[in-house]
Amino acid sequence: MEYSEKVVDHYTNPRNVGKIEDASGVGEVGNPVCGDIMKMFIKVENNIITDVKFKTFGCGAAIATSSISTEMIKGKTIEEALALKNTDVVNSLGGLPPVKLHCSVLAEEAIHEAIADYYRKEGKLSEEEIIQKCNLKEHHCEHCE
Amino acid sequence: MDIVYLDNSATTKTDEKVLKAMLPYFSENYGNPSSIYKLGRENRKAVEEARGRVAEALNCEPNEIYFTAGGSESDNTAIRGIAYSYKKKGNHIITSKIEHPAVLETCKQLEKEGFEVSYIEVDEKGFIKLDELEKAIKPTTTLITVMFANNEIGTIQPIKEIGEIAKKHNIIFHTDAVQAVGSVKIDVKELNIDSLSLSGHKFYGPKGIGALYVRKGVQFQKFINGGHQERNKRAGTENVAGIVGLGKAIELAYENLEEHNKKIKELRDYYVEQIVKKVPYIKINGDMEKRLPGNSNISFRFIEGEGLLLNLDLKGICASSGSACTSGSLDPSHVLLAIGLPHEIAHGSLRVSIGKYNTKEEIDYTIENIVEIVNRLREMSPLWEKFIEEGEQ
Fold first, then answer.
1. From CA B202, how far away is CA B291, in angstroms rounded?
2. Do B383 and A32 touch (CB under 8 A)?
């Protein structure tokens, strides 16, 4: 399996690794049985994501997608971050092997979960509105089923 | 450091002496061994000499050795060939849960074709449960196929005991010895082995050449139709250079077996000892006594194997893992699951397999890098964070 230079760069020198102690929102997706967990921490000020950190248990692609997606949402509005698609993550990495595409989906889901957590803490939206706005999905993987 | 090759269970570097023995068969000695003139006759002689060397290493007769294209072909041929030859007697095959895919997939295919297969469990060290094996025997059982030594965790099975059980019940016993040949002394007579697969590139021979031993008197079907090569079992002009290389490689392996094994085992034990000393929260997979000398398999908890392999690769270190990401499926290694590892621990496994060309300097360099990479990946791992904050769940 061949990874692009960009993927190699990101799993070798991942950006924004760590946690935010007073995070506005935290999202965790995946599970250890499948071999991938992504945990995303965001700091939100005036609707802008001012800081992002992540922790990931997973393969090179999982680390690289987490890393680049933190870069892609930092400084963006909540709406812009929610509009980020897994395909955008894949494109910025210069592609991913087909078997690794699910890693980019996890990254997108982790961002959405972190924003949902932020909304919940903020307490302005109902759970239904949050689920709709953040497009939250049940975790599905072929493995766990 | 340039390349540190610690994946000798995957393949080995062809020995210079093996290569040298092979080269003339690509150039001046190009004759077809079936031809009647001198150029052909001499190649026939070379093929038969190599056959003799393989037979000598296994303590069998040269006419009990068939050359194949490798371990997988030998396994397929033996299992299918024997199963079909004894179909009138019965359709039941016994194997283990930790076999190489060449065996497991062949068994699964035979199930589709109407055979019945029992997959025997192994214990937490990877040893087959002999009582279960014997209990699984039915009047219709014609074949037991259990690997000699496991490719992932190095566990060496009680082959002699399995052979005795098979013999007692008048069942044919095949063993996939691809990982063992060249590392373990094998006497097919003493061990009651009726059929055995081996592969040249696992012991410093070339790729694309293997052999199958089938004891005289054991029936097995012809597997490639065509000419009369390999006593009419496998048609096709012989891979003369490969056969010569295999013969040379097996001769070298057994000539220096004890010396190589001593050195390899010392390096392996040193590696394991140092990792145990330097990295907490690991699990050593397999048994430390009845184990291939160069094999080590360690699970590093809270991290995933592919991430570890990729980072080692950047340092020039070649190893392998049983994680799902490297197995090409969604599940981690079937072997690690069969010895009872939970998925998340199986995902973090690293197989380092040491060979005769490795040095202590290389092992030290590898240990140093593993420690650094594991720490880095753990710092990045939410599982590690949870473990530090909340302890064992």
1. 16
2. yes
How crowded is residue B388: how many other Cβ atoms within 10 Å of its Cβ?
10
**pLDDT reading at A41 higher than 70:** yes
CB atoms within 10 A of CB A63: 30
The predicted pLDDT at position B207 comes to: 98
pTM of the model as a whole? 0.93
Sheet bearing B349-353, strands edge to edge: B282-284, B295-300, B349-353
A38 min Cα distance to partner chain B (Å): 7
Nearest residue of chain B to residue A17 (CA atoms): B380
Interface check A32 vs B, CB under 8 A: yes
SS3 A57: strand
Question: Which pLDDT band, with edges at 50, 70 and 90, does A1 fall under?
Answer: low
Subunit contact A57:B330, Cβ cutoff 8 A: no
On whether any CB of chain B is under 8 Å from the CB of A36, the answer is yes
> Shortest CB distance from A59 goes to which of B307, B383, B385?
B307
Mean pLDDT per 10-residue run, chain B (393 residues)? 93 98 97 96 97 98 98 98 97 97 97 98 97 97 98 97 98 98 97 98 98 97 92 95 98 95 98 98 96 97 93 95 71 92 93 97 98 96 93 77
Q: Look-up: residue for tokens 């994946």?
A: B7
Q: Is the pLDDT of residue A95 over 90?
A: yes
User: Which amino acid belongs to residue A117?
Assistant: D
In the sheet that A36-45 helps form, which strands lie side by side, from edge to edge? A25-31, A36-45, A48-57
Nearest chain B alpha carbon to A29: B382
The pair phi, psi for residue B340, each rounded to 5°, is: 95, 15
Beta bridge mates, B353: B7, B295
Q: Do B324 and A60 touch (CB under 8 A)?
A: no
Strands B92-96 and B65-68: unpaired
With a CB cutoff of 8 Å and minimum separation 6, the contacts of B42 are B29, B31
Of A3, A11, A35, nearest to B323 by CB-CB distance is A35
Task: Give residue for tokens 């802008």.
Answer: A48
How far B304 CA sits from the closest chain A CA (Å)? 5
Best of B303, B304, B333 to disrupt the A interface by mutation (most A CBs within 10 Å)?
B304
State how beta strands B317-318 and B4-5 pair. Answer: parallel
